[in-house]
Design a protein that fits this description.
209 residues, 9 helices, 5-stranded mixed sheet, 49% helix, alpha+beta
Length: 209
């Protein structure tokens, strides 16, 4: 297991500590301002990126907080998930995510994949194992395997790797707002704190327009 899962940095108190008040949220404390802003996917919208790995327990713990929040974001905010690709099973799971996204079914099975790994003990480490499990969730097995090995998905893998490098991430879960501000659960004070920081930075970017 990669020792740079940022969640491991939540050693002890930071995950369970009190979240910051809006007036206390500042660069260098709850978040880092990137030296070189990264272009957003949809110019004109404020972008919130979540970098994650299906096998990360703290990404799984973040889901019940971030998913309802993301579903209620206003029209001027674009929420994007990007898989972290640090090799091995990270890449396998990332390719699964990008395959499901390319098929237009990721939103329907996202929770099921997380639950399969963290509740049911499934590894989902090979394309055949993924396809077999996903078939039970209504995903066409042949279409999944074909898309998994497609040129388009491989291109998205390369794009994800480049974005992670541009964001300068070393683990997950990490959030990046508008290609400018990066933070994790440790600096934000846990899932609720992460949402507070994200809301603060969204408001900051909206005011700057």
């Amino acid at each position: 297991m990669r020792n740079l899962i940022l969640s491991a940095v939540l050693a002890g108190v930071s995950l369970f500590g009190a979240t910051a008040h809006a007036e206390d949220i500042q660069a260098g404390k709850q978040y880092v301002e990137l030296g070189s802003p990264v272009p957003v996917a949809q110019p004109g919208k404020i972008e919130v990126v979540e970098l994650f790995w299906y096998g990360c327990p703290h990404c799984y713990q973040l889901e019940p907080t971030i998913q309802p929040w993301a579903e209620k974001l206003p029209a001027d905010v674009n929420f994007v998930r990007i898989p972290a690709l640090f090799g091995g099973v990270w890449n396998a799971h990332g390719q699964m995510f990008l395959t499901l996204e390319a098929m237009g079914v990721e939103g329907k099975v996202h929770d099921a994949v997380f639950n399969a790994i963290h509740r049911e003990g499934k590894k989902l480490a090979t394309p055949d194992e993924m396809a077999e499990y996903l078939a039970g969730q209504g995903v066409d097995k042949a279409a999944f395997l074909s898309t998994f090995n497609s040129f388009a998905v491989k291109g998205q893998m390369e794009k994800a790797k480049k974005l992670a490098m541009a964001y300068q991430i070393t683990g997950v879960p990490v959030l990046v707002v508008n290609g400018k501000y990066r933070f994790d659960l440790g600096t934000a004070g846990g899932p609720d704190g992460a949402i507070q920081v994200a809301d603060h930075l969204i408001a900051k970017e909206r005011a700057a327009k």
